[in-house]
Amino acid sequence: MRTSPLFSGIIYLFLGLLFIYFAIQNVQESGWGIFTILLVVLATFDCGSGLKMILSSVFFKKKG
After folding, report:
1. Nearest-angstrom CA–CA distance, 24 and 32
2. In the predicted structure, residue 64 carries a pLDDT above the cut 70
3. 4-63 per-position pLDDT tens digit
4. Which of 14, 20, 41, 58 has the most beta carbons within 10 angstroms of its beta carbon?
5. The whole model's pTM is what?
6. What is the secondary structure of 1-64 as a DSSP string?
7. Which is nearest to 45 in space by CA: 15, 10, 3?
């Protein structure tokens, strides 16, 4: 069974928000470092991919 783009988008968005939370916690504890920057980059990719999947799913459901 294939997963829908909407479900995958929600999972990616959740992971992006989780990485943002971890990045904020890491900055509060030890400041900006390479690990924090890596978390922010991962969060950016995950949130972007999640939003793109969710919006494309909504667009294709409206279209057809």
Report:
1. 10
2. no
3. 889 999 999 999 999 999 999 999 999 999 999 999 999 999 999 999 999 999 898 887
4. 20
5. 0.86
6. -PPPHHHHHHHHHHHHHHHHHHHHHHHHHH-S-HHHHHHHHHHHHHHHHHHHHHHHHHHHHHH-
7. 15
Tell me the C-alpha distance between 6 and 34, whole Å. Answer: 32
Identity (one letter) of the amino acid at 42?
Answer: L
Interatomic CA distance for residues 23 and 60, integer angstroms:
34
Q: What type of residue is 44? A: T
Q: Return the structure tokens found at 5.
A: 């783009």
**Torsions phi, psi of 22, nearest 5?**
-65, -35
